[in-house]
Design brief:
single chain, about 260 residues
């Protein structure tokens, strides 16, 4: 039992570290752990994951804000629209219980996107050649464009418990032309609101295993603060490549699970 709690706590730290470093929620670490190692059903894995995701994003966004990596004026429409969609899709979540196989498939596709993005960034983007202004072209985007982006990002944690960090970092980086550290901080700030709403909803719906969620969340909060500090001095290019390849494998596990194949 002690080993189980320790392993869960360490998984939370790893998820938090990645969240602080890469601007993601850490669900890409937590979800496979809960699904394939702990053995939670998909619905409970998603509900428990989003609790840890909230503490990852909240802890990381606080540190990034102190480092000056977040401009709330620029991302306010993304935050608001994401919060609304997280609430709406969280209301739909309990009705997906009979379709958990499709949740596995959707999570697998999402992991495939995340893995592809990480590998792409490790090879083409994080080489230090691209320059940005402080807020890039984000201020040039119209409010309805930001609302659209926030709505898509907010739907994912509402439905799957993970996901919007992978989308938001890419959008803030490649469309808003933000510096990578600003993109990471902004992603964490937006995702933390989405994850909080999704966490409250899934907890109230009874889809959270608190024996797992508590040590996981404590570790995630600690790891997120450490990861945000390391972000200031650490080049994450190699980390993107390593975890991109790992998540390709995890993506295959989820997708093949949909077809009844285990690897």
């Amino acid at each position: 039992m002690i080993f189980h709690y320790l392993l869960t706590f360490l998984t939370g730290i790893l998820a938090g570290l990645l969240g602080g470093l890469l601007g993601i929620g850490g669900g890409i670490v937590v979800m496979p752990y809960l699904k394939f190692i702990v053995g939670l059903p998909t619905m409970f894995a998603a509900g428990t994951t989003v609790i840890a995701v909230f503490f990852t994003t909240f802890g990381g966004s606080i540190k990034h804000y102190r480092l000056g990596h977040i401009d709330f004026k620029v991302i306010a429409p993304v935050i608001i629209s994401g919060a609304v969609m997280s609430l709406l899709f969280s209301l739909v979540f309990p009705h997906l219980k009979l379709y958990s196989r499709w949740l596995d498939f959707a999570i697998g596709i999402l992991f495939l996107f995340i893995a592809s993005r990480m590998i792409f960034e490790s090879i083409w983007f994080l080489d230090g050649k691209k320059s940005h202004s402080n807020n890039g072209s984000a201020v040039k985007f119209k409010w309805w464009q930001k609302i659209t982006i926030g709505s898509v990002a907010g739907a994912l944690p509402g439905l799957l418990g993970i996901g919007s960090g992978a989308i938001l970092v890419a959008v803030f980086t490649f469309l808003f032309d933000m510096p990578i550290k600003i993109a990471i901080g902004s992603s964490l700030a937006c995702f933390s609101i989405n994850a909080f709403i999704s966490s409250v909803m899934k907890a109230s719906q009874g889809f959270v295993d608190w024996n797992i969620a508590i040590p996981l969340s404590i570790g995630a909060f600690i790891g997120a603060n450490i990861g945000a500090k390391l972000n200031k001095i650490f080049s994450s290019k190699i980390l993107h490549l390593i975890f991109g390849l790992l998540f390709l494998y995890i993506s295959a596990k989820f997708i093949l699970l949909f077809y009844g194949v285990k690897i």
